[in-house]
Amino acid sequence: MGRKLLLEHADVPGIETFDVYRKHGGYRSVEKALKTMSPEEVVEEVKTATLKGRGGAGFPAGMKWSFIAKPEGVPRYLLCNADESEPGTFKDRYLMQYIPHLLIEGMIVSSYALGANQAYIYIRGEYMFVLRIVEKAIAEAYEKGFLGKNILGSGFDLDLSIAPGGGAYICGEETALIESLEGKRGNPRMKPPFPAVQGLWQCPTVVNNVETLATVVPIINMTAAEYTKIGTEQSKGTKLISAGGNVERGGVYEIELGLSVEEFIYGDEWCRGIKNGKKMKALVPGGSSVPILPAHLITKTANGDTRLMSYESLSDGGFASGSMLGSGGFIVFDEDQCIVRNTWNFARFYAHESCGQCSPCREGTGWMEKVLHRIETGKGNMRDIDLLADINKKIEGNTICPLGDAAAWPVAAAIRHFREEFEWHVTHPEEAVKRNYGMLKGVTA
Amino acid sequence: MVKVTIDGIEIEVEEGTTILNAARQVGGDIVPPAMCYYSKLEGSGGKCRTCLVEVAAGSERDPRPMPKLMVSCSTQVQHGMVVKNLTSDRVKEARAGVTEFLLANHPLDCPVCDQAGECHLQDLGFENGKEGTRFEEEKRTFAPRDIGDKIKLHMNRCILCYRCVYTANQLTNKRVHGVLNRGDHAEISTYIEKALDNEFIGNVIDVCPVGALTDKTFRFKSRVWFLKPMNAHRDCPTCQGIATVWMFGNEIQRVTGRKDAYGEIETHNGKTAWLCNTCRFESKDVAQWTIEGPRVINRHSVISQGHYVLKNPLEDKSTVKNLK
């Protein structure tokens, strides 16, 4: 049984209310931080814990915090990125829905560390029911004196507000989120300047994922020294994984980083194997934008080591034979699944969600979607496969924000590992259409 | 002052200058093409990605190369920076890719497009594009629309450089002109088809690098290469009245701002010489203008003579295969 730091009390009835949450040790970290620690000490603690950003990129949160500019008389902001829209990822929703106070607690401590007196939670529009839950929790926290003026008599003020987004994936990119929060079209900004210098309303801003902010709570409670005992050499602590796809028991799991991938998929405590006794074909370990792994690279890395659920082990071998932990959207494919169809589905998502600001992403994602659709519906030809690989190369690294890369990686990886399947679609157009299980009605080769 | 090397040419520029502007101070072929950057518009740039360059050394203090290609229009130079533009194969490759992307959904209706002959996308395609297309899909299309009674919007041709959006935002105090939708369905639009009525709104035509925004008083009247551009000015209560008039015989066919080598409106008397609608659309009589003399157009387009010369097939082995 792995240790649970975030979801320890998630199944306690009524944990979403302040009183029950407080009874189970809630808001201890606020008391500890505000009464016994200086803001710098909190930042130092998070730095020592080597907490990596849980939103996908894995940038060290403590480092991000220490970059924040501190000019005199300029307010600073903390933004919580709850615009979770990566296909396959649903851990933040789970956290906010069941233990909203954990996020609020984490945000109070983090705001104190950053010296921010105003914090926002940017929730995606589709999570309106979650928004109501968080809203209620915030109202309770205000009532009990954990938000507002002079929290616990420490002289620290914090206002926490919720901002619902319009449901665009791109608004999960931090600068697009800031633009959207300012009431503008959610287009990513050019960097530099980074948000830590000029963010929301041109003031220093830190944007963190829901899980990152929630993880600050156990770090303060148990001290960084204790926290770093969990996990592997380079990946410390626990991580929420939202397992989905063809597993026997999907859902949100909190794992200690360093658990083996095999154990996570087949272990009784976790996913309990592949549904209907099928064989595993492929795995997307960190949300739709990370490279897909073929069966032989899932439990073992290219050089034969056991593949672990950790930042470094999953990315072992680079993109040639590895992937990324990403946001923890763990999607398992069984032997019946069509990789081409899945790749097209992902490409369609990115084509739909590209903001249309910079040309490689705007035109490239749409182009890839069209080519993949053609291959999937039996109208492709062999040169299309090389064309896709080439479009990928032209997008990757040449865009304003990482959405272009996120769109290019899954397609590139699918071609790298499952080229025969693309070729099979070209050489067997009629069967390829039949394999759609009637989902594409009216399409004939 | 900081020292920067672009394609082996050293130049000293002021601190805070972007790579693109430093290259423009050198001039010539080493200037990266820019489809969206417009030095006179605040906030423009970074979108088209045609000006990508390779930074081979970040600065004197930290001479590591930058891993990604950088957009030269918004990357500031550092002392000792070494930039590769024409000398970098990576840049050429990426730029050819961007050109292909920009042309993917472009209708290529140059034979009927008013911008043909002075179009930056034509230049970009000629200089950086490849022969033939790999885009076999159906192109996305929009219906042409009127924005006000003098401006026509052909969204099909648009490359979403956002220049007109910045122009409208910086000229008017209401956000009436912007972008709708996302991805390759994004389109320039006005607030619920509202007409743009501002004394200076005609400038969106001048800033448009392609034929997406065209002058309805000139549409289909002539081709730009049949016209003689002349520097002219007039007394105008609204604007500076400094313009280029495009003449056919003794008749003024159209009026545009005076554009420099990079297609940007020139600065006169310390101010950008934006043209007002009266000068642009309603002053087509020769008697209204003082003609100064012929205007030299030296860098872009077919109207600059000798710009489009065919490559020597003996030098270019990619076009003539199996050449010994």
Automatic annotation (TrEMBL), chain A:
NCBIfam families: nuoF_fam (TIGR01959), PRK13596.1 (NF010120)
Lineage per the UniProt record: Bacteria, Pseudomonadati, Bacteroidota, Flavobacteriia, Flavobacteriales
Gene: nuoF
Reaction equations catalysed: a quinone + NADH + 5 H(+)(in) = a quinol + NAD(+) + 4 H(+)(out)
Protein name: NADH-quinone oxidoreductase subunit F
EC number: 7.1.1.-
Matching InterPro entries: NADH-UbQ_OxRdtase_51kDa_CS, NADH-UbQ_OxRdtase_suF, Nuo51_FMN-bd, Nuo51_FMN-bd_sf, Nuop51_4Fe4S-bd, Nuop51_4Fe4S-bd_sf
Keywords of the record: 4Fe-4S, Flavoprotein, FMN, Iron, Iron-sulfur, Metal-binding, NAD, Oxidoreductase, Quinone, Translocase
GO MF terms held by the record: 4 iron, 4 sulfur cluster binding; FMN binding; metal ion binding; NAD binding; NADH dehydrogenase (ubiquinone) activity; oxidoreductase activity; quinone binding
EC class: translocase
Protein family: Belongs to the complex I 51 kDa subunit family.
Species, as recorded: Taishania pollutisoli
Automatic annotation (TrEMBL), chain B:
Main location: membrane
Chain ranges of the 2Fe-2S ferredoxin-type domain: 1-89
Keyword annotations of the record: 2Fe-2S, 4Fe-4S, Iron, Iron-sulfur, Membrane, Metal-binding, NAD, Translocase
Superkingdom in the source lineage: Bacteria
One cellular component term from this protein's GO annotations in UniProt: membrane
PANTHER family (UniProt xref): NADH-QUINONE OXIDOREDUCTASE SUBUNIT G, RESPIRATORY NITRATE REDUCTASE
Protein name per its UniProtKB record: (2Fe-2S)-binding protein
Species per Swiss-Prot/TrEMBL record: Taishania pollutisoli
